Amino acid sequence: MPSQQELDLQISPLVQESLVHNSRTLHNLQSLTASLFGVGAGILGLESYSGFLFYLLFSLITTLLFYTLRIAPASISSSSSGTGASNKGGVLARYFRSPLDFWTAGLTNGLAGFILTWTLFYGLVRA
Q1: Distance CA 29, CA 110 (A)
Q2: How many CB atoms lie within 10 A of CB 122?
Q3: How does it sit in the membrane (predicted)?
Q4: Rounded to whole angstroms, how far apart are CA atoms 22 and 94?
Q5: In sequence order, what DSSP letters do the residues of 60-112 get, joined into one string?
Q6: Distance between CA 33 and CA 117 in Å, rounded?
Q7: Which of 80, 96, 104, 127, by CA, is between 20 and 30 Å from 63?
Q8: What is the DSSP letter of 41?
Q9: In this structure, how many other beta carbons lie within 10 angstroms of the beta carbon of residue 103?
Q10: What are the backbone dihedrals phi and psi of residue 47, each rounded to the nearest 5 degrees, phi first?
Q11: Is the dihedral of CA 101, 103, 107, 110 positive or negative?
């Protein structure tokens, strides 16, 4: 007798190409916004820990908005049609490799771009 998780995967299978596409889309969004956050931190003249807290806060807000606007509506529509995500990891496991990867990958992906644009615009404003 197949388990509920096996039945869910037979009804709506996880496709690796889709998982890679979703991860790449999120990575591109986080890289772009990290550069924009660097511009903002540089223009505001933030230094040291305040600049990194600015980046951390706004990166988490960006990920939360992505989840709220793109993933949550899709999960609501899929759960109302009877193919809810009852597997381990919940809704995020249906669209991304792991929930931890979804929430924390953006912090490291965009850090270099953030620091680059932060120091550039800080120097331009202070010059």
Answers
A1: 9
A2: 20
A3: Multi-pass membrane protein
A4: 10
A5: HHHHHHHIIIIIHHHHHHHHHTT----STTTTHHHHSS-HHHHHHHHHHHSHH
A6: 11
A7: 80
A8: H
A9: 16
A10: -130, 150
A11: positive
**Measured distance CA(68)–CA(76) in Å, rounded:** 11
Give the C-alpha separation, 90 to 92, whole Å: 6
Using the structure block, give the residue that is written with the tokens 């615009």: 121
The C-alpha atoms of residue 82 and residue 69 are separated, in whole angstroms, by: 21
Output the CA torsion sign for 104, 109, 111, 117. negative
Per-residue model confidence as pLDDT tens for the chain (127 residues) = 777 767 666 666 667 787 788 888 888 999 999 999 999 999 999 999 999 999 999 999 998 998 898 887 776 666 655 544 444 456 677 777 778 888 888 788 899 999 999 999 999 999 8
Fill in the amino acid letter for 115.
I
- C-alpha angle 121-124-126 in degrees, rounded to nearest 5: 105
